[in-house]
Amino acid sequence: MVNPYNDSKLGKKQQVAEMFNSIAPKYDFLNHWLSFGIDKLWRKKAIKLLKPLNPSVILDVATGTGDFALEAMKLSPEKIIGMDISEGMMKIASGKIADLHLDKTISFEVGDSEEMRFDSESMDAITVGFGVRNFEHLEKGLSEFHRVLRKGGVACILEFSKPKKFPIKQLYRFYSYYVLPIWGRLISKDQRAYTYLPESVSAFPDGDEFISILKNVGFDSVKEYRLTFGIATIYFAVK
Fold this sequence. Notes:
Layout: H1 12-34, H2 38-50, E1 57-61, H3 67-71, E2 79-84, H4 87-100, E3 106-110, E4 123-129, H5 138-148, E5 149-160, H6 168-188, H7 193-203, H8 208-216, E6 221-227, E7 232-238
Parallel strand pairs: 1-2, 1-4, 2-3, 4-5
Antiparallel strand pairs: 5-7, 6-7
Helix pairs in contact: 1-4, 1-6, 6-7
């Protein structure tokens, strides 16, 4: 298991919360700048895939500063609940919603994706952007997704993946391990956050392996959509 802080005695879950609390003030800037803004296009693609389903109640897990929840407003849902374990990220997300006067539709709360408070079969769709690789117990978290989704509901999971073709594979690895950590440290002031990112991507069971895990926890069908030469993938898992 890859943890944010190798010298910490805390569990991965607590370390992830600590890391995101640390980088929260600079998170949006770094997220968009270091990805050249492509992350915004990836979220738009994911929401377009959900549009034919017309989900009424959406749960955005590992919502961070709320970008995915905001993009999901294009689906005209009755309710969006954003959940994250980082209080620092939730504070920023709540500020965004207040500024946009969307607090009647979107709400945010601190919560654990592996032990969610929601009733079984209470959600039409779950979105999560770049969050599942941070789960301490991946299958437990995905099982919770399956539990709270209604029959026919969808988990739309956007996550980094590992490019496999030359020269994108080599360029991506160089950028991830040598460029991104330097700028991440300089701007966020966190010595490990942007070193942990490529390490966690490398350790994550992407592609067919992740699809198998989703099916093992009960999802009936899973489609994958590879994005930008395989740098990211959308997994569309139907209950």
